């Protein structure tokens, strides 16, 4: 899939495509010519984003039988899936272990980690049998640093490792598997955390080198790059798209990054 030529003739599945980063991926990949199948637990929103309701599918990615049934339905309809973007995910509140309940813990692991694995297994195995395909898993900078998110952070760290495992598994079969780790991206999920007072947008900005929050489109463009043949020799990587949060966060010990140099 060449970036310049776009994704014409290609079919790409986007999980969590009804909202946020997934929605931005759906719109960008469609604008570049792909037929995009929008997979989400919220069918109404998925259908609205898909434009054609036939391209929207209601699936809970944490349920392997639902994921496998979808992959079989798509294959039976004669559609071959060329690309997969795993965006379906949930966040959690920053709670200490004695407050974080087991059901929430299992739900986060079940959707963010197991759901990503189930989708990779169902669609990636079919790609491997055909000898071509590309997968992008949306992890998080939370999977690369310690945070008070004792289910979410380990789940995302595992997604990064899973990406490496599957890249090695399917490399000889022509399937590339990469991850993107977004920093703080203004979506409904983050906005709700901000609205509840669980995240302070000013602090998030202060702690990034570029001094800005990220927009869903800023994630969708690198996703499209990793799906395309422009990235033909890239597999098994985790690409942070974080406005420099990973490099600037530790500067808070020294009062934060310096302000912009005066112009001229
Ligand atoms: N927004 C951020 O700052 C940020 C940062 C790093 C990583 N991420 C990751 O990016 C991905 C997308 O996040 P977002 O901010 O766009 O969130 P969002 O809530 O806007 O979108 C997530 C989508 O996933 C769907 N979904 C949730 N559970 C599902 C399930 N069990 N089965 C199928 N669909 C399900 C939701 O219905 C929703 O449409 C998530 O994996 C999230 O962890 C987000």
Topology, pairings included?
Layout: E1 11-15, H1 20-31, E2 35-40, H2 43-50, E3 56-58, H3 64-76, E4 83-86, H4 102-130, E5 133-138, H5 152-170, E6 175-182, H6 188-195, H7 201-206, H8 216-227, E7 238-241, H9 245-248
Parallel strand pairs: 1-2, 1-4, 2-3, 4-5, 5-6, 6-7
Helix pairs in contact: 1-8, 3-4, 4-5
The chain binds nicotinamide-adenine-dinucleotide.
Nicotinamide-adenine-dinucleotide binds at residues 15-16, 18-22, 40-42, 59-62, 87-91, 111, 115, 138, 140, 182, 184-185, 187-190.
Overview in brief:
The chain is an alpha/beta fold and 264 residues long.
How many helices? The count is 9
Tell me the strand order in the biggest sheet: 3-2-1-4-5-6-7
Number of strands: 7
CATH class: Alpha Beta
Terminus-to-terminus distance: 43 Å
- For CATH, the homologous superfamily is named as NAD(P)-binding Rossmann-like Domain
Shape, principal axes of CA atoms = globular
Ligand species: nicotinamide-adenine-dinucleotide
Q: Which architecture would the CATH scheme give at its second level?
A: 3-Layer(aba) Sandwich
> Rg from C-alpha positions?
18 Å
Mean pLDDT: 95
Sheet having the most strands:
7 strands, parallel
Query: In percent, how much strand structure appears in the residues?
Result: 5-15%
* Poorly predicted tracts of residues: none
């Amino acid at each position: 899939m060449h970036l310049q030529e776009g994704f014409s003739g290609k079919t790409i599945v986007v999980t969590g495509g009804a909202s946020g980063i997934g929605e931005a991926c759906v719109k960008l990949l469609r604008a570049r010519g792909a037929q995009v199948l929008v997979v989400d637990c919220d069918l109404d929103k998925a259908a609205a984003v898909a434009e054609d309701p036939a391209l929207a599918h209601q699936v809970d990615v944490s349920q392997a039988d639902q994921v496998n049934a979808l992959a079989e339905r798509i294959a039976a309809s004669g559609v071959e899936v060329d690309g997969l973007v795993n965006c379906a995910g949930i966040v959690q509140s920053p709670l200490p272990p004695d407050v974080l309940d087991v059901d929430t813990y299992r739900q986060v692991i079940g959707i963010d980690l197991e759901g990503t694995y189930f989708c990779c297994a169902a669609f990636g195995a079919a790609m491997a049998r055909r000898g071509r395909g590309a997968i992008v898993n949306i992890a998080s900078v939370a999977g690369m640093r310690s945070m008070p998110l004792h289910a979410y952070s380990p789940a995302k760290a595992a997604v990064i490792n899973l990406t490496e495992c599957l890249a090695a598994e399917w490399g000889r079969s022509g399937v590339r598997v990469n991850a993107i780790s977004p920093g703080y991206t203004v979506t409904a999920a983050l906005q709700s955390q901000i609205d509840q007072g669980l995240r302070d947008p000013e602090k998030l900005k202060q702690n990034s080198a570029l001094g800005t929050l990220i927009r869903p489109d800023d994630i969708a463009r690198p996703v499209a790059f990793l799906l395309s043949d422009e990235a033909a020799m890239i597999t098994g990587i985790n690409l942070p798209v974080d406005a420099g949060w990973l490099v600037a966060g530790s500067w808070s010990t020294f009062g934060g990054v310096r302000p912009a140099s005066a112009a001229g």
